[in-house]
Amino acid sequence: MSFKGQILRAGEKDVFIAANQSVKVLAKSIWEMGIKSTKEDFVYASLKMKEGQIESHLLLERERNLKFFPERLERKVHQSEDGLEVELYSPVFVRSVILEVPGESVEFSDNFFDLVPGVKKRVRLTCSSEKEGIISDRLNIT
């Protein structure tokens, strides 16, 4: 996938892996995966299971050599059962997203991550119910 969100190669594969085992399920060079530039592309993979989904990505160069694009973040704040939920989305790769609420005691399900283009990221915020409006207004995303 490119930092601009272009899918270079996609595929699906059914796998069975026994408990406490490690199995190689794909072995391809980056060029076979459609990577054109190690400075503008990266490897993204997701594993879908009954319990949910695990996602991972691999940057192919040192960060100082990568060609990122201007951030374009969309955010939505929703009420959830145990507090608030923030949904983030970007059409381009966003490196090192940090969530914080200055001066407030808030627990995040995740507060430091990379945002993959086209993939929505949901983060739960746990706080006292009387502070939810304040938290929603003061939420910093950098």
General description of the model:
- This protein is mostly beta strands.
- The chain has two domains: 1-67; 74-141, Immunoglobulins (Immunoglobulin-like, Sandwich), CATH 2.60.40.10.
- Helix content is 5%, strand content 36%.
- It has one helix and nine strands.
- Strands 3-4-8-6 form a four-stranded antiparallel beta sheet, with no helix packed on it. Strands 7-5-9 form a three-stranded antiparallel beta sheet, with no helix packed on it. A two-stranded antiparallel ribbon has the order 1-2.
- The longest helix is centred in the last third of the chain and has 7 residues, at 132-138.
- The radius of gyration is 18 Å and the shape is globular.
**Tally of helical runs:** 1
The general outline is: globular
In terms of per-residue confidence, which ranges show pLDDT below 50 for 5 or more consecutive residues? none
Overall structural domain count: 2
SSE string, helix = H, strand = E?
EEEEEEEEHE
Number of strands: 9
Provide the CATH architecture of the largest domain. Answer: Sandwich
Question: Which fold does the CATH topology of the largest domain refer to?
Answer: Immunoglobulin-like
The largest beta-sheet arranges its strands as 3-4-8-6
Helical content (DSSP H or I, runs of 4+): under 10%
Return Rg in Å. 18 Å
Our measurement of the CA-to-CA distance between the termini, rounded to an integer number of angstroms, reads 23 Å
Q: Roughly what is the average pLDDT, rounded to an integer?
A: 90
At the fourth level of CATH, the homologous superfamily of the largest domain is Immunoglobulins
Strand content: 35-45%
Q: Specify the biggest β-sheet.
A: 4 strands, antiparallel
What class would the helix/strand composition place it in? mainly beta
Query: Which CATH top level class of the largest domain fits?
Result: Mainly Beta
